[in-house]
Amino acid sequence: MSDTDYNINWFPGHMAKAMRQIREKLNLCDVVIEVLDSRAPFSSINKALKEMIKDKPLLFVMNKIDMADERVTKEWLAELNKTTMTVCLNSLDGVGNIKIIEDALAKLLKDKIDKAASFGKSIYPIKAIVAGIPNSGKSTLMNNLAKRKAMTTGDKPGVTKSQTYLKASDKLILLDNPGILWPKFENQNQAKLLCLIGSIKDEIVPINVISEFGIDVLKRYYPNELKARFKLDTLDKTSEELLYDIGRKRGCLLRGGEIDIDKANEIFLRDLRSGKIGRMTFERVGEPL
Ligand SMILES: Nc1nc2c(ncn2[C@@H]2O[C@H](COP(=O)(O)OP(=O)(O)OP(=O)(O)O)[C@@H](O)[C@H]2O)c(=O)[nH]1
Ligand SMILES: [Mg+2]
Question: Has residue 288 been placed in a domain?
Answer without folding.
Answer: no
